[in-house]
Amino acid sequence: MSNSELKVTPSQTIGPFFRFGMDWIATEQLVEEGHPNAIVVHGVVYDGGGNPVPDAMIEVFQADENGKFPPECAGSWSGFARRLTDDNGGYEIRTIKPGAVVAANGELQAPHIAVVVFARGLLKPAFSRIYFSDEAEANSKDPLLNVIDDPKAKNTLIAVSESGGKYRFDVRLQDSDLGPETQFIQFGV
Amino acid sequence: MGSILGQPLESVDPPYHFPGYQSTGLRGPNRNPLIIRPGDTELHAPVFGESRIGPNDNDLTAQHQGQPIGEKIIVSGRLLDSRGKPIANQLIEIWQANSAGRYAHKLDDHDAPLDPNFTGGGRTLTDSNGVYRFTTIKPAAYPWGNHPNAWRPAHIHFSLFGTAFDQRLITQMYFPGDPTMDSDPIANSIRDKKVLARLISDFDWDLTISGIALGYRWDIVLGGPNPTPEAK
Fold first, then answer.
1. B224 pLDDT exceeds 90?
2. For the domain that residue A103 is a member of, what is the CATH number?
3. Which of A76, A153, B30, B90 is surrounded by the most beta carbons within 10 Å?
4. Residue A188 lies in a domain
5. pLDDT per residue over B101-124, tens digit each?
6. Confidence class of residue B226 from pLDDT cuts 50, 70 and 90?
7. What are chain B's domains?
8. Integer angstrom CA distances of residue B205 from B58, B60, B176
9. How many CB atoms lie within 10 A of CB A102?
10. Cα nearest neighbour of A8 on chain B
């Protein structure tokens, strides 16, 4: 019985009033302004009515430029950022594209950022990934993108390259007039 | 090479949609999630060092000039993975209402007093045995607009990281014997009473401090498909 699985603690919603507990790291950037490879990932969280969600929390986690994670990576790289959406449901994170890392099957993956969304009304986290539209060749070989048959669903994972190193990544919690629900991810074995 | 597609683990979490909790209606995802085995990104986790924790961050009664009003309590327990291995040196964050059931948040319009000596946010790192400990004030139940005469049971919100990003969890700790639990749709979105019971702390004489504070013990177990294997 020494290897028996313990009873896992279930999820509950973050609720509406998390700001004063969660905002202490909610403005930190992953790289400083002026970093030569800095990019900005930004977007809006929408509900199923196409309304912006002003009380969501978005967190991202990613490798550094060499594909390394804490504590193995150099310097002070945390790989982590948190944002509380603003009154318009918006968020913005300054970071860099991560280096290559492997998938569960050992294949190299296209550059991507893990993302998780919490909000009032979400009883459990909504995980997904952020890929980049200007990495078309790498994306075409990515083992995760390649198991999504529906091209519309696949596109929800790909941040759209804009001018000035900006990438637009909206999160749609459900289908709406604005587009299809984001392809969320559940982790299995 | 094999596919990264995975089989779902037996889930303890509530569903995205629970009709009794109205806000799930337009916010809970409807489509089937893509079930994958986590990649390198999801198998690592952020590391938060001691430098991120201030001296009074784990004592919510000592963050202002005076003492907050209410029943002082100790909340302590262990952060474990599903094999029972302690998750050491990891960040735990909490936030809660005050002893009148009011949050220090501009959108909380409950007509109960704010306490100038209580904000209600805290954080700490687990020690090498996965143990955490907070000193705080017992929060009160409060009304909300979900349905007529709706009251949230007293609870403390907990934000948890494991050794893998796929273990990220936010949940709520409840108190034993709360008479409003049975009518709370957020708690009861977890349909299995045995699973819901994992969110209810135990009153614990060993944690009480004579003359100062009552103690509640609550252990947290993070799931995720790839807990650190037991040492052979």
1. no
2. 2.60.130.10
3. B90
4. no
5. 999 999 999 999 999 999 999 999
6. low
7. 24-222 (2.60.130.10)
8. 20, 21, 14
9. 15
10. B221
